[in-house]
Design goal:
It contains 9 helices and 7 strands. By secondary structure, it is of the alpha/beta class. The chain has a single domain (8-189, 218-238), classed as Rossmann fold (3-Layer(aba) Sandwich), CATH 3.40.50.720. Strands 3-2-1-4-5-6-7 form a 7-stranded parallel β-sheet, sandwiched between helices. Helix 1 runs parallel beside helix 2 (41-53) and helix 1 (17-28) packs across helix 9.
């Protein structure tokens, strides 16, 4: 047996990058996984195919977690298809750095709607189905402690996620539902390629600074989330794990 046998997990924003790696890691450890996507159906289906080819169970479900009805429908799809819910990973997020002079209302609302409201709405929907031993893992960012220039809005959203994690850990503890947060440092993903970070001076700085001396890979995060989702972490709640190669 593997440590997540019999468990059902929903991973939001799992069509690529860190989310895809998390979905695959949970499936490798035995969980049935709902691979959520907002727009990239092909990406989500590719993740599902990889999981099923390895002998796991997974389905792809579209849904914008910043929309309450769609967040509820996502969770209901998991319960309807697999019969239960044990793990929620709030990974959906956007990032677009902007100098303070360039911050707009649209920029602010897009980030806070997806990165913060999405966490609240998905958790609200999932909490109705999670039972004793359930686990919620929120994905934040090491940017909260590093505070890079031009990231005021993005870093603000992730600071909110950290605070929400602590509150929900206390709120859901009487039901024996654990809530933790993982804060990745620089990770090479489709998103960091698209943003122009990979191959830039910024990447060189991110790689040079951590004591472990390399960029992160999505699989580096997947294993940590799988641990927090499992009963191996049954005495861990309200905690932040910073996965940044030692960068502080």
């Amino acid at each position: 047996m593997t440590k997540l046998d019999g468990k059902v997990a929903v991973v939001t924003g799992a069509s690529k990058g860190i989310g895809a790696a998390i979905a695959k890691a949970l499936a490798r450890d035995g969980a049935a996984v709902v691979v959520n996507y907002a727009s990239s159906q092909a990406g989500a289906e590719a993740v599902v195919e990889a999981i099923t080819a390895a002998g796991g169970r997974a389905i792809a479900v579209q849904g914008d977690v910043s929309n309450a009805a769609q967040a509820r429908a996502l969770i209901e799809a998991a319960v309807d298809h697999f019969g239960r819910l044990d793990v929620l990973v709030n990974n959906s997020g956007v990032y677009d750095f902007a100098a303070i002079e360039d911050v707009t209302e649209e920029h602010y609302r897009r980030h806070f709607d997806i990165n913060v409201l999405g966490v609240l709405l998905a958790t609200q929907a999932a909490a109705k189905h999670l039972r004793e031993g359930g686990s919620i893992v929120n994905i934040s960012s090491a940017a909260v402690s590093l505070r890079p220039a031009t990231s005021a809005v993005y870093t603000g959203t992730k600071g909110a996620v950290n605070a929400i994690t602590g509150v929900l850990a206390n709120e859901l503890a009487p039901r024996r539902i654990r809530v933790n947060v993982v804060s990745p440092g620089f990770v090479v993903t489709e998103g960091t390629h698209t943003a122009g970070i990979v191959g830039s001076d910024m990447e060189a700085g991110f790689v040079a600074q951590p004591p472990l001396g390399r960029a992160g890979q999505p699989d580096d995060i997947g294993g940590i989330v799988a641990f927090l989702a499992s009963d191996d972490a049954r005495w861990v709640t309200g905690e932040e794990i910073t996965a940044s190669g030692g960068l502080r």
